Amino acid sequence: MESELKDLAPKSTAPSQPEPLDDGSTKDDRPLLKPDSATTDSNTISKPNLEELEKKYAAYVRNDAYGVMGRGELPWTEKVLLGIAFVTLLPVRVVAAMTILVVYYLICRVCTLFLAPNREDEQEDYAHMGGWRRAVIVQSGRFLSRALLFVIGFYWIDETYRNPFVDEKSDAETVCKDQFEEGERPGAIVSNHVSYLDILYHTSSSFPSFVAKRESKSSDFKGVSGVVNERVREAHQNKFAPMMMLFPEGTTTNGDFLLPFKTGAFLSKAPVLPVILRYPYQRFSPAWDSISGVRHVIFLFCQCVNHIEVTRLPVYYPSQQEKDDPKIYADNVRRLMACEGNLILSDIGLAEKRVYHTALNGLFCQQ
């Protein structure tokens, strides 16, 4: 790892692309780099190297007014605005957000009371719950997710539907429903990953099922890709099954780049629905790339107005060649999203992101 941090010259070779997270065990799962490694190599990373780091790991570089890792020097006007928002806007938003979360938790508890979940793989699975219980959870979840976004400052959501026969949202929803009934239903929604806010938007929009990796156990032979493949195929074939929501990049970026896609979402050979998210900003970027969670939440809540732009592409139906090779399928969907969303293709991944974070911590340790 020392050599990886030292090799920052322009003549160095490009970082290798991480292997896809298909079997649940790749180098992306290695433990986060220990702080002592950053301290040991701190004398090899100086301020002039910051530009080299930003060139090499451009997908994770913050370009807003708050600087690297949100620790940049702010002008006095920004400090005044931040101080006012910290004592007025932040407490109100924190209380409102916590209230919404508690209310939805209570709704879920009441709706699942006296209901035995599917405990396959030692997990509580309520995804296939039906009747009034599911209706209440879904509708209240969509409403409260949008309410939470409103509280945070996302008062308007700019949604664009890239369909030549659709001009408005209402028409788009009608066309999508007819398309799903007459043709093949997409097995999953695939989206670029910019922030934890992505989850709130998708929940408010379509309330899909999300996939999160848990600790592997000796009795677990399916792996992550096996579970994803099974759920995507089921959502594709059964209109009553919950739609899957996947972030094939595997980690977040600054919103200007698109990382290589993992093939888990494309192994089932089912059609997918691509969605592109952008977060325009003037002062603080809502992207969660190279900034701590607490610092990000505080700055986000102190920003009066936040913006989100959503581009929904038509359902992507794979060709026979793409069905036979999920890597080609994933790469073609990725290139389409990059073209439609004006995103830059990048060949780095989670492993490089960890190296970048460690290098930044080393720089701040010198100060």
From TrEMBL:
Annotated region (Disordered), positions in chain: 1-46
Presence of the UniProt keyword Transmembrane in the record: yes
Signal peptide annotation: none
Pathway(s) where this gene product acts: Lipid metabolism
Gene Ontology cellular-component annotations: membrane
InterPro entries membership: LPCAT1-like (IPR045252), Plipid/glycerol_acylTrfase (IPR002123)
Family designation: Belongs to the 1-acyl-sn-glycerol-3-phosphate acyltransferase family.
Organism: Ilex paraguariensis
BP GO annotations: phospholipid biosynthetic process
Chain intervals with Basic and acidic residues compositional bias: 24-33
Xref: Pfam families: Acyltransferase (PF01553)
Major localization class: membrane
Membrane-spanning residues: 80-107
Keywords recorded for this protein, A-Z: Acyltransferase, Lipid biosynthesis, Lipid metabolism, Membrane, Phospholipid biosynthesis, Phospholipid metabolism, Transferase, Transmembrane, Transmembrane helix
Subcellular location: Membrane
All residue ranges annotated as the Phospholipid/glycerol acyltransferase domain in the record: 187-280
Compositional bias segments (type: Polar residues): 37-46
A GO molecular function held by the record: acyltransferase activity, transferring groups other than amino-acyl groups
Name of the featured protein: Phospholipid/glycerol acyltransferase domain-containing protein
